[in-house]
Amino acid sequence: MKLTLSKKCASLSPFEANLPTFTLVTGLNGSGKSQLLSGISSGSIFNDVSPVPSDRFGSPAPEYRTPIALFTAESFSGHLSQRGTDDFNGLARRERIGRKVALTFKQIREEWVAWGRSRGLDTDELKKITIRAHYHSREKSVIARHPVIEGPETEILLLLSDLQAKAVPKETIEPNTGPDFGNGLIGNAEGRLGLPYFLLSEEDITHKALDPTPFFRSSIGPLFTRYRNLQLLNLMRRLQQEEGEETELPLTPDAFNERYGPAPWKVVNDTLRQLGVDATIASPSPTEFDEYIPVMTTQDGAVFPPDAMSTGERVILNLALCGYQVGNTSENIEPSKLVLLDEVDAPLHPAMVKIYLDIIDTVLVRHFHMHVIATTHSPSTVALFPGDTVYVMKKGVSGPQPVAKSEAIADLVSGVPTLSVALEDRRQVFAESPVEANNLDQLYQILRPTLKSPISLQFIATGSKHDNSSRDNVQRIVRSLVDAGNKTAFGLIDWDLKNIPTDRVKVLAPGRRYALENLILDPLIIALAIYRKHPDVTDYYGFDESTSFTDLWRLDPTICQSTADKVTERVLGSAPEKCVECRYCGGLTLQIDDRYLRMNAHKLESDVARAFPVFDSLTRGGSGKLTNHMIELILRELPAVVPLEVSEAFLSLIHAR
After folding, report:
1. DSSP element (H, E) containing 204
2. Do 468 and 554 reside in the same domain of the chain?
3. pLDDT-based confidence at 63, cuts 50/70/90?
4. Between the CA atoms of 402, 404, 406 and 408, what dihedral angle is there, to the nearest 10 degrees?
5. pLDDT tier at 421, thresholds 50, 70, 90
6. Based on the domain organization, do 551 and 604 belong to the same domain?
7. Among residues 485, 493, 397, which one has the least CA distance to residue 436?
8. How far apart are CA 247 and CA 155, in angstroms?
């Protein structure tokens, strides 16, 4: 893997480095390890592992680009208690339509495969050529620029035309879909995979028509529930067959296990036992459709949610989930091409470090072909690293440099006798409500690798709700603590069109955005959430049909600007008027309607739900549900679109004296 920094980035000087697939980086505090990872994540430091793909004409290719994954120990293990709410009826519908597609177009697919074989093309090569040809056939602008598409694509365009003439309309298989209703499962799979609908397989409909689950976002609840529902569906088909009713053929136990793999609770619990964890995860009830809430039970009967474990134990549990993904065929998993681990090993006992490194090497690198860069301060981690060479970052030296493990260990332990802990390195920041404190803490954990500071922020709520006295409560509590001699107490409040920052109570986006909600519900973030979670309704909401979630994810300024304009226009009811320049943590700059930025936070939430009813259930679910949804769905995986004012607020607290 080649890294290239062409111009100075933070404290890092330009460099080029060729790193192995699994790289361990160490170095003293302030040497630039976190800056290295954040620079790679933001794109400031180029890597050749996860480039933006393009076709041979220079146009964006239809393949999905997997983003870079950056984790700290906390973010690596922070989603384990998510509830399982997988829809049984939706699962049954996907299975039914998938089988119907496979049977209906069986002969057409066989003719397509035979055509490829006659030209010496294996299935993968045939699929790639078909995707490109199908893509170009729909892109009139591409055809206009390149009127002659030569080679196999010319032939396959003719073949696709002949095959489509033989295929029944997809609306015949999946009624109530099409231009007047929405894409449906078949349309979603066709759009996501780039293949014509009559060439889709059963697996394409049952798994790949849905948004893929990012590898590191797979959670216990949804994972266990999905597998339980597959078992239930197969059991119901077997009972129908025994009663003589017409039904799709059930799978035998061996066939079921071959198709979907072993039960995840068995695999994960076996792994936890091997890792020495004195607790098991309860499996969902095998004959109920109820929501599944993951709980853990110790040998002495203590029951607790996974998130109640220590950070180190949660890291181990997430490693167990990573191990399960090797045989997981019940989910459409999306592996990251490049994984950046910022001292994820820090909370681990030395006895667990070997397992941590083994899972990275065997599961992430060897099985899923990911590239991994991990940073560490631990001599144990360096000593147990499987390679002979690690990399070190030093002040005044450009980029990571290869060194022997013995040299790296000597550098790490040389200062042990002088180590000390300064309590001033943590600052208590009082927020206006529990919801705001939670949102701020999540945003801080997301941005922490980019803040480049040993000082940490701890957000604390001042009351049980966000009301007219919340600002006064923050100011009163901070003033009382400071008067009593506390040097680490600060406050962070919303602008509310009037508040002015002081030396101890800072203001979010003063003079720019009404409140924290106006930052999290930024138009670009709203658009990303719709394209990510509800791609079938984008045309209904007036978005450009030629734009995809992948296009937005690449943060093309022109596409992002036009899409953000659509959001503000729909929320405000009119085209953008006076616009203000808004910057984002990844360097993107957009012009956003000032009315949107200054709108009352509660009104903004309700207006967003009114404009985009797909979010209505979240706003009715209680305060903070919508903002938390945006953080979990978009910002945790794409920190580059966090509005810059959030980072500026955190830095103002870190640098305050």
Report:
1. helix 202-206
2. no
3. very low
4. 0
5. very low
6. yes
7. 493
8. 40
CA separation for the pair 541, 526 (Å, rounded): 12
d(CA 167, CA 55) in angstroms, rounded, equals 28
- Domain membership of residue 357 (yes or no) is yes
pLDDT digits (tens, 9 = 90+) for 572-619: 999 888 999 999 998 999 999 999 999 999 999 999 999 999 888 887
Residue finishing a domain among 327, 358, 389: 327
pLDDT average, residue stretch 20-42: 89
Q: Name 375's bridge partners.
A: 25, 342
User: How many domains does the chain divide into?
Assistant: 4
For residues 643 and 515, the answer to whether their CB atoms sit within 8 Å is no
Decide if pLDDT at 502 tops 50.
yes
Same domain, 538 and 627: yes
CA count, 13 A, side-chain hemisphere, 379: 10
> Which range among 132-136, 301-305, 320-324 has the greatest average pLDDT?
301-305
Q: Which amino acid is at 509?
A: A
pTM of the model: 0.50
d(CA 9, CA 2): 17
Q: Which residue has the higher pLDDT, 222 or 350?
A: 222
Is residue 600 domain-resident?
Answer: yes
Those residues with Cβ within 8 angstroms of residue 557's Cβ, 6 or more apart along the chain or in another chain: 588, 589, 590
- Does 279 share its domain with 387? no
Residue 74, in any domain of the structure:
no
Q: Could you report the per-residue pLDDT of 72-107, keeping only the tens digit for each?
A: 887 776 666 666 555 666 667 777 788 888 888 999
269-302 per-position pLDDT tens digit: 887 777 677 788 888 887 777 778 888 888 888 8
DSSP state string for 478-497: HHHHHHTT-SSEEEEE--TT
Mean pLDDT for the stretch of residues 40-44: 85
The beta strand positions in 301-417, using DSSP E, are: 303-304, 333-334, 338-342, 371-376, 389-392, 401-404
Q: Cα(392)–Cα(326) distance, rounded to whole angstroms? A: 31
3-class DSSP state of 384: helix
* E strand or H helix that includes residue 224: helix 220-242
Q: Do residues 436 and 469 both lie within one domain?
A: yes
Contact (CB, 8 A) for 478 and 428:
no
**Mean pLDDT, residues 259-272:** 82
Region 214-229: mean pLDDT is 79
- The position carrying tokens 């049980």 is 464
Indicate whether 402 and 521 sit together in one domain: no
How far CA 530 is from CA of 146, 549, 607, in Å, comes to 33, 9, 15
Q: What is the pLDDT of residue 480?
A: 81
Report how far residue 15's alpha carbon sits from residue 302's, in angstroms, rounded to the nearest whole number. 53
DSSP assigned state of 36: H
For 196-199, which contacts have Cβ atoms below 8 Å and span 24 or more sequence positions?
196/130, 196/134, 196/160, 196/163, 196/164, 197/101, 197/167, 197/170, 198/105, 198/108, 198/109, 198/163, 198/164, 198/166, 198/167, 198/170, 199/105, 199/108, 199/109, 199/112, 199/130, 199/163
Instruction: Determine the structural domain holding residue 432 and report its residue range.
Output: 424-442+452-507
Beta-strand pair 589-593/579-583? antiparallel
Residue 309 has pLDDT above 80, yes or no: no
